[in-house]
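thought: user wants a sequence for this fold. calling inverse folding tool.
action: design(structure=
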């Protein structure tokens, strides 16, 4: 996918209901205000879980699953 295609896909998705910005209001103890003050943003990420372990990289999770299948 080219950069232009990626931008169009994102624009299309955002037009279908908007960008999903993680809520800083959910930060414990009023941390949301402090995060805003310093320009710190929450970034959601996907975690892959397999065999009781968690992976941030899908390829690592697949490799672990393949190793166990041997």
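)
observation: tool returned 70 residues.
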């Amino acid at each position: 996918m080219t950069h232009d295609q990626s931008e169009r896909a994102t624009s299309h998705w955002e037009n279908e209901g908007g960008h999903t910005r993680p809520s800083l209001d959910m930060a414990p103890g009023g941390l949301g205000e402090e995060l805003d003050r310093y320009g710190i943003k929450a970034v959601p990420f996907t975690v892959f879980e397999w065999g009781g372990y968690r992976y941030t990289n899908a390829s690592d999770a697949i490799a672990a699953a393949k190793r166990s299948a041997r």
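thought: summarizing for user.
answer: Here is the designed sequence. The mean pLDDT is 78.
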